[in-house]
Amino acid sequence: LFEIGERRLLFPGDAQFENWAYALSKPRVRRLLQGVNLYKVGHHGSLNATPKASLWPLFDSQRSKKASPKRMTTLLSTMPGKHGHTESATEVPRKKLLQALKTETNLFSTQGLKAASKPHETVIDLSPSRRRKRPR
Question: How much is the pLDDT for 127?
Fold first, then answer.
């Protein structure tokens, strides 16, 4: 978790359920995660990388079904069909997660990029926000 001014950027890498269980058992960590503005989806959007019951609800105040530059930005680096299976609900990325990211965040995914395309640049506004107070 990087804090830059009033912005919080979360890059969990390949953290999965066990890592999240430990981190989310800490009240201070839970408070910090409630203010995440940018989330780099972990482990290519796999089953255990974004715990639906414990991590996803912490982002409630940053997510919205209404498109807005102020709602959470998510980044997803993945390639469908490489791991898991839809039939066993182990596909990567998880369809339910992908749908939630598309409808409740400003999602930037490698799935939308062509292999031969130029590199994609995502610009995130890190200027101070006056509408949100830092949790303590």
Answer: 67
Residue 132's pLDDT is 47
Is 23:49 a contact under the CB 8 Å cutoff?
Answer: no
CB–CB of 60/27 below 8 Å?
A: no
- Any idea which residue has 């066990």 for tokens? 18
The Cα–Cα gap between 64 and 136 comes to 24
Q: Which residues of the chain have pLDDT under 70?
A: 80-81, 84, 91-92, 112-120, 122-136
* 3 state SS for the chain: CEEECCEEEECCCCCCHHHHHHHCCCHHHHHHHCCCCEEECHHHHCCCCCCCCCCHHHHHHHCCCCCCCCCCEEEECCCCCCCCCCCCCCCCCCHHHHHHHHHHCEEEEHHHCCCCCCCCCCCCCCCCCCCCCCCC
In this structure, the strands spanning 7-10 and 73-76 are: unpaired
